[in-house]
Amino acid sequence: MSQRLTDVVVAADNLTQTVQDKIGNIDATVAAKSAEVDVSIAQSKVSIDNFIVGARGEASHILLSKNQRMEPLGTTGIKHFNTIGLSSIEVIKEATLHGNPSHDVDHTGNGVAADFRANVYGGYVNGYFNILRIKWTRNNRAHPARIDDNWYRGYQQGSMTTACYLKLITGDIEGAMRPVVNYQNDWSLYGTQSKVTSTVSQFHGAHTKLGLSKSTETSGEALICLFGTASGYIDLEKVGWGIYPEFARPSDIPATGV
Description:
Layout: H1 2-58, E1 86-97, E2 105-106, H2 112-119, E3 129-138, E4 160-170, E5 173-174, E6 178-182, E7 187-194, E8 211-212, E9 219-231, H3 236-239
Antiparallel strand pairs: 1-2, 1-3, 3-9, 4-7, 4-9, 5-8, 6-7
């Protein structure tokens, strides 16, 4: 009887060990498969990321707005900018930046070109652009005061990016544009991006991209340059913002014989 009990105990121990071995084999198999799945997911993610980067790299970014170089219209406006909601605005051309920094022009002696070069970008520029000083007072209406009320033109609806470099001196601003990159001495790259939300129905971008003053009958002052909207998604955090090519519109082409 004692021998039989011993045999039973030994058999039970052997069975337990067999079960433990099987569990160990199952755990090892699961771990191996899990590692394979992790590798497969990582490879798929890299493949998708590469596809997205490639697709973005193949997409052209065309300027949808006008006068991104920001030529002023006298001292109370900016060419092709339909500013609304203000009781007054003063525009001063502070500086013009060129491809070579040695060719930059400081129009007022305030050192704005040097300030931008030292704190935002000091390299080559693919064309000239102006830095403007704007001083404004918002009127007493509840409607937002927009620096460029260009939504109604129909050129800025869909996948697009709007941005500008801005240094807020006094007052405040509102709208869809937010600081994307902050630089030294209070300069920031402001931007907003939108995408196509439907392929079968209407869609549009934000009405107020950059609003001047959050409250009515208040004033502000800022330095601004390269305000514009380009087609497609532009990764502002990685590539920043620059000058984009513009297609001629029918309204820009004079009639035959004129």
